Amino acid sequence: MMSVAQIGDFEIEVLAWSADSEIATRRTERLIRACDPECYRIFLSVSGEIRLEQAGNQVDVRARDIALHNLSRLSQATPSPGSMRLVMLTFPQALVPIASAKVRPLIGTLLPRSMPGRSLIAQFFVGLTDTAELTADPDLAQVLSECTVGLIRQRLGQPNGITPHTRQLLHRARIRDIIRRHLGNPLLDPNRIADAANISPRYLHQLFQGTELTPMQLLKRLRLQECHRHLQDPALATVPIKDVIAAHGYLRPDQFTRDFKHHFGVSPTQIRRLASQQPTERKG
Question: Which of 64, 58, 59 is closest to 44 using CA atoms?
Fold first, then answer.
């Protein structure tokens, strides 16, 4: 099974694989001649193991390992028997302001686990597995750009690798992902968010200083946006509004209605009514 999301210049693919024997996939000269996107690809194994071969290098990618490939070169991938889950991040070589000759020694290799910032980026990549939610994050393209280029710079020992700013972006992206995954928990608060992110509540607030929203304001906005999306979904038209809002962590319908109308300018009932009228209007 594969799911794909396009975020700016970045393509995120999540592959779930299960087989009882080794099945190799190859990128051949013929395929490269037919379609050479001139892209780099970062692999991260969420679970399971896959053997990658490129540029004379052969590595076994295990859970939380990160490897770099070049789609303009021959390669082979051989998952181990069993099940695995893999995140693949593909992006144009032109986005990396480093000469390809300098990047070449990294192709087909694993990024050392001891490299500063690598574990934070691995954790961030694992959070990319829910591709259906990725397009809702307006800051994700910037995070992807900074962390991929920073990862390569860091591995090459160049300045401006995984900078403090990049770390902040990664932490905020991680926190947004945590909030999205726990919207239905009415008890979600800064302490629980910080605990899930393995940071202190104090650092959580520091991360959001100078940004548009505090963590709790972000939680409210995401809840309202998800409720809005569900109320517009024809497949959920028969689900009572009280059940929709309860599923997203609101305990008080009256408070939800006030927040919803303040944010969207219309009531939840009006949104659902308008959504139900759209098919009729399109037919007319």
Answer: 64
| Residue 129 DSSP symbol | G
Give the sheet arrangement for strand 25-27, strand by strand.
25-27, 75-79, 50-54, 57-61
pLDDT computed for residue 242 by the predictor: 93
For residue 242, what are the CA distances in angstroms to 151, 153, 184, 255, 274? 45, 50, 13, 12, 18
How many residues are recorded in the chain? Answer: 284
Residue pair 76/24 in contact by the 8 Å Cβ criterion: yes
Under DSSP, the state recorded for 104 is G
Bridge partners, 58 (sequence order) = 53
Residue-averaged pLDDT of the chain: 91
Return d(Cα 141, Cα 119) in angstroms, integer: 20
Q: CA 148, CA 105: separation in Å to the nearest integer?
A: 16
Give the per-residue pLDDT at 275: 83
Q: Which two tokens stand for residue 194?
A: 């910080």
- What's the predicted TM-score (pTM) here? 0.82
| Letter string b/e over residues 23-51, b meaning 16 or more CB atoms within 10 A of that residue's CB | eeeebeeeeeeeeeeebbbbbbbbebbbe
Instruction: List Cα–Cα distances, 240 to 177, 229, 244, 245, 278, in angstroms.
Output: 27, 14, 7, 9, 20
> How many Cα atoms sit within 13 Å of 8 on the Cβ side?
13
CA dihedral 37, 38, 39, 40 (to 10 degrees): 140
Contact 185, 204 (CB under 8 A): no
Q: What is the largest CA-CA distance in the chain?
A: 64
| Token pair for 139 | 């800051």
Q: In whole angstroms, what is the distance from residue 240 CA to residue 257 CA?
A: 14
